[in-house]
Amino acid sequence: MRGEYKSVPMFMLTPNSSNNKTGPMAVSTSPMWTCPESCPFRRHGCYGAYGSVYMWWRRISQVSGDADKEYTAFLKDAVSLPAGKFFRHNQAGDLIPESGYRDRISLTHCIQLMNATNRKKAFTFTHYPVLRVKGISQETIDINRSIIEQMNSNGFSVSVSCNSVMHADQVIDSGIKAPVTTILPRRFKSEKISISKSPGGRTVITCPASINDKMTCVKCKSCMNPQRKVIIGFPAHGSGFRHCERIMSEWGKGVPVS
Q1: How many helices (H) and strands (E) would you count in the chain?
Q2: Distance between CA atoms of 147 and 167, rounded to whole angstroms?
């Protein structure tokens, strides 16, 4: 997939996003190959696969070159951001995988990321698996959980992205020390449902920016809190919403282990 574009970086950093949803914060984009193979939205339904975000995501995903050198250049740009700057890592893409493992997070690259964003208000979301699913070893699950917990304990908020509210309950019940998010049915946006409950009785807050045009991530800040206990939900949207809702149905009882 790489090789077509030479005029853009492999890892893109926008110091001040013009995105109406995020508000004026720093935003990054990582190549498609950073997304775990096990993510059910990897090929369809992902937010990054539509609109103007997809245009840039596709371009940087086709950049050739040494990924580590490209990442180092990106980190230098991240270091230069002012202290206290809000930083949404990966409006599209995910954390870098360990070499040879499509579903295992690279600890080395995450440590580099934490060091580069020290004193910034950094946050991101990850779809790397933290519970056993078909084809994923327990070793990989343990490594992913450890890295995610380490990043959160060091102030870099990493929310575990879940595929249904039931899945979110199961992730929280597993004891992972990390905030959790999930997708929600499309109607949560159209009906402006702000608060609901998971099957486990936990509070689910619909992303305020998804139901209120005047709200932004900069104003809300909830996803930036690594100690957050409530589940934040994002209503399915865009042309891939039907696929998202189908995934929600398939994961309606949590992780479909086989």
Answers
A1: 9, 9
A2: 20
